[in-house]
Amino acid sequence: MTIVAASIEAKRILLVADCRVTFADGTRHDALQKVYPLGPNAIVAFAGSVQLASSALREMATSKARTRKIKLDVITRRLLRITERKAQHLWEAGRQGADCSYIIAGYVGAAPYLATVGVSGGSAPRVQIMRKAGAYSVIGSGEAERDSCRHTIARAGLEKFTDEQAAWAFSGFIDAGLSLLSAPQRFDEGIGDLKLHFFVDETGWQFVPQHTEMFRGRIADRNQPLGYAPVNSVSWNKITRRFLLRDYQSGSRYPLASILSFQPYDLRGTVNTEFDPYSLRA
């Protein structure tokens, strides 16, 4: 299950996305990067078919030099056309799940820009562009989950938080609502706990590092003091331009899988002898 959400606040846009990828056999891994820079002032996030998004964003990336100075609404329309063409080809070839949604968040000068694009083979595409404070967008699997996020965002009151605090509060409020919604199956079908947090303003986009912690008490380990122990963290490497996951339990470090250089077999922990890249869902 995927949830990507974004909200235009007074002087910034907040965006949060999980990292979960789901295989046809139901196997899930929190190892996929779903948010990508479009330039210094904008980012794009996706949900749906990994193969479709990978193909479309790769084609967009090949024309990066030509799109640097193009307006965000032009980039939005281009991404829509590319994805629609590829989704139609997959649909005509009998591929199931040829659908994908995007959120594009950025600034044009001092003005915020938030676009939602939805594409499905055999259906008309959907585009919504928002520019005013208070607007928000949610994409992902499950109408009930999307509705929960919309109601949460509408009542969050994030204007009183600083940028980094707002990103964490935004994510926390959404996750709390989803936990209540899906409590019976939370551990099997819930949203991934590993998330990427961003805020975007007129100076550019900023990644907010995540540090997930787990309660460490006397019952869990009588030799350890009460408190919290780090489980994992996500950081942004400016040199390699990759998100790096650190697992404190195993001591391992590895980059989140990028769909711009996507090799499905590189997904950590994946064991799937009948692997079909078209079956991957984000």
Description:
Strand 7 (99-108) and strand 8 form a beta hairpin. The protein is 26% helix and 35% strand. Mean pLDDT is 78; it is low at 186-190, 215-226 and 268-274. The chain has helices at residues 50-62, 64-67, 72-92, 143-154, 163-181, 186-189, and strands at residues 3-8, 13-18, 20-22, 28-30, 35-39, 42-48, 99-108, 111-120, 126-130, 136-140, 195-201, 204-208, 210-216, 227-237, 242-247, 253-255. The protein is an alpha+beta fold and 282 residues long. The chain has a 5-stranded antiparallel beta sheet with strand order 10-1-2-11-12, covered by helices on one side. The chain has a 5-stranded antiparallel beta sheet with strand order 5-6-7-8-9. The chain starts with a strand and ends in a 27-residue tail after the last strand. The chain contains 6 helices and 16 strands.
